[in-house]
Amino acid sequence: MTAPSPAAAAGVYLDACATSPPAPEVLAAMAVVQAQAWANPSSLHGYGLAAAEALERARWRCAALLGCRPEELVFTSGGSEAIHLALLGAAGALPPGRLLISAVEHPATEAAAAALQRQGWQLQRLPVDRQGLLDLEVLEHWLEPPTRLVSLIWGQSEVGSLQPLEAIAARCRQAGVLLHVDAVQVVGHRPLSFQELPVDLLSLAAHKLQGPRGIGALLVRQGVALLPQIGGGGQEGGRRSGTEPVVLAAGLARALELAAERLQRHGGSDPLAKLRDAALERLLALPGLRLSGPDPRLSPAARLPHHLSLLVSSPEGMPLGGRQLVRELWREGYALSSGSACSSSGSAASPVLRALGYGEAEAASGLRLGFGPWLSAADLEGLPAALERARQRLTAAP
Ligand SMILES: Cc1ncc(COP(=O)(O)O)c(C=O)c1O
Predict the structure, then answer these.
(1) Count of domains in the chain?
(2) Per-residue pLDDT tens digits for 211-244
(3) Which among 27, 111, 156, 311 could disulfide-bond with 161, CB atoms 3.0 to 4.6 Å apart, if both were Cys?
(4) How far, in Å, from the CA of 246 to the mean position of ligand 1?
(5) Residue 79 CB–ligand 1 contact under 6 Å
(6) Are residues 318 and 391 in the same domain?
(7) Other residues' Cβ atoms within 10 Å of the Cβ of residue 377
(8) Under 8 Å between Cβ of 248 and 216
């Protein structure tokens, strides 16, 4: 079985931060497990035992690759569910207090935080600077009681900022406050060992690293109490009921393995950063294009290695609509995203760019490029010219 190659399809796929095409090796591993271990792992007959064994093998492999104990890993349906289990689960085992999140969280965190507010929790959003980075002094100020839980997006999906996790975690530890990190955009792009990370809970999703959609995981530090959010058969050590997706778990394990091998081959750093930096250099040569989020040429450690985000204006400096640009770029054969979904107010301005301090029109002019291992330098050769043509068509439109 071969995976559909986005580069060979109608366009060059540059939307890795939205999702990524499953790797052929992942599909092959899943096909084997699908054929041999399709049964319910809780069944006591031989079919069930085969499924249970495949599930545990996948769990052990994932745990080894993530540097956690097998019993610290809870399979979920993806990143959003992992985040909900982290926030509602950890808060459910605590008396109501205050939750800190940043002003640039994924909507899943915002939704879980709103649910906690309805349960009597206070919510404090911490501001970020123009790069999307937290001010550690502000964090420290808010770590006072009644703060009991902090949830932060480690790698920001829209502007690429990587929060200084070690420094944040040290402050949370000192204050005795639980820390959850949304590592959905990070896993697969840097070596990671949960054992060595000073965090209590960590969320990830397989589909961002060429694994299957429909599975993610929450890593839960041993000893951290968690109130299950889905009851029933008591699977996943009683923390998440529901018949386990054995095939998807095998796919996640293979995807993690491929990512770890790639990082190892490149001395522990993501080779996509080179491709990204080359594209950045050429794109910024166009008039009217600006980077949003941290500049990887100045502070590579502050930005996701596979991520680029731009603000696009006409050469005269008029911000253009990111969503329209995305449509025009698809006509040119490039699949990327604007990062700004139309809000209920009808505005196309991105709340994340607004939180970074950009005005309404600029915050609607974002483009996001997400790079993946399926891309080569040749795939990106024509991108600046295509962007220029797309921009000209938009500028010329009445
Ligand atoms: C940073 C971040 N957190 C959470 C999620 C949600 O993950 P999922 O789509 O697997 O539910 C995403 C997905 O876009 C994300 O980028």
Answers:
(1) 2
(2) 999 999 999 999 999 999 999 999 999 999 999 9
(3) 156
(4) 21
(5) yes
(6) yes
(7) 10
(8) no
